[in-house]
């Protein structure tokens, strides 16, 4: 499996690691805001991966030139869209994780 090593990958990896560290820390009981944010970040990373995979299936029309600027724009757009989706309910992963973790 080829792992893409670019800025999108680094941002997604950092978000996932931050969420994992918050959720795994055993020091103080975590506030509900920290838990909610960590679960939303986790869902945003998953949604971003889904959006990237879906975006690759769209055929190129040739209307716009494909270059590094469009790649950067598409990455930012996908990242922003996935974060917004996660903040507004997404596909429900964040809520289920939050409910499960807050019980413990």
Automatic annotation (TrEMBL):
Residues 53-100 form the Flagellar protein FlgJ N-terminal domain. Its EC number is 3.2.1.-. InterPro entries: Flagellar_prot_FlgJ_N. It comes from the Bacteria. It is an enzyme of class 3 (hydrolase). Pfam families: Rod-binding. Keywords: Glycosidase, Hydrolase. GO terms for molecular function: hydrolase activity, acting on glycosyl bonds. This is Peptidoglycan hydrolase FlgJ.
């Amino acid at each position: 499996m080829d792992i893409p090593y670019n800025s999108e990958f680094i941002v997604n990896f950092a978000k996932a690691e931050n969420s994992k560290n918050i959720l795994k820390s055993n020091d103080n009981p975590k506030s509900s805001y920290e838990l909610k944010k960590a679960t939303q970040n986790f869902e945003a990373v998953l949604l971003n991966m889904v959006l990237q995979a879906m975006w690759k299936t769209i055929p190129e029309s040739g209307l716009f030139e494909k270059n590094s600027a469009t790649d950067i724009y598409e990455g930012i757009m996908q990242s922003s869209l996935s974060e917004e989706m996660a903040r507004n309910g997404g596909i429900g992963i964040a809520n289920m994780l939050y409910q499960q973790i807050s019980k413990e």
